[in-house]
Design goal:
By secondary structure, the chain is an alpha+beta fold. The protein is built from five helices and 16 strands. It has three domains: 65 residues, Alpha-Beta Plaits (2-Layer Sandwich); 96 residues, 2-Layer Sandwich (Alpha-Beta Plaits); 50 residues, Roll (SH3 type barrels). The protein is 27% helix and 38% strand. It is elongated and about 75 Å long.
Amino acid sequence: MHKIDNNRVEYRIKIADGFENKFKDFIASHSDLISDCNLEDGIFIASFASQSTYEEFYKLASREMDIVYAKKDIDDDARSNWYAVNIPSRREIGIEQKFIEYSINNEGINEILLPKTESTVWKDQVKKTVKECMSPGYIFIKTTSPAYIMKAAADIDVRVSVLDHPVSEDEIEKLRIKEKEDCNFGQKQSYSVGDHICVCDGTFKGHNGYIEEIDEKNEGQLKVVLPVFGRGVSVKLGFSDIRKVNK
């Protein structure tokens, strides 16, 4: 392996599904080009003696396998932070995808998190899994500077605002844990029109009612009928706001 010197560069390399083992074999057979390589969460973190060495390595590797992206890793002294980004509500999942697509070919956006829940619904005897954003109107982006977020938003034509203070890693981890817990719970339940439910969050927390309509256009939204002041009132809620109850 090459000795890492002051010209060393690091890249985060994502290989297409099915090519990971081939990439490992490629690394082993081209140890003269790569200084070090580790696999973290499906991403290869590779070190090269210089930028020109990386370029030679990439040229050879891309001929033999599909490389989804290769991004230069940030310097140790330029640490990135998580930021809460305000985005148009009810468009969170689509906007997340736009940021992901942008980040593949552009530097500056290191990670993207949009916590979601999953629920199984039945409509017209068809089973469907729907996703719902756990943080309506917000997405979380890790970057070295909020300026990268604003540039990305301008390029993908989305109006955003970035909260001033970074979000701590502890808070991000709590969101990840909550997302996993809610998805596991939601996947154990299925919802249909007419199901009796209890509201577990929000203004109507503690109220019992039933599902009146499942909204196909706004994924993760539904209408429930709740007794308010002695009469049934139709209210729009999300699947994460309710839990099924047995009657």
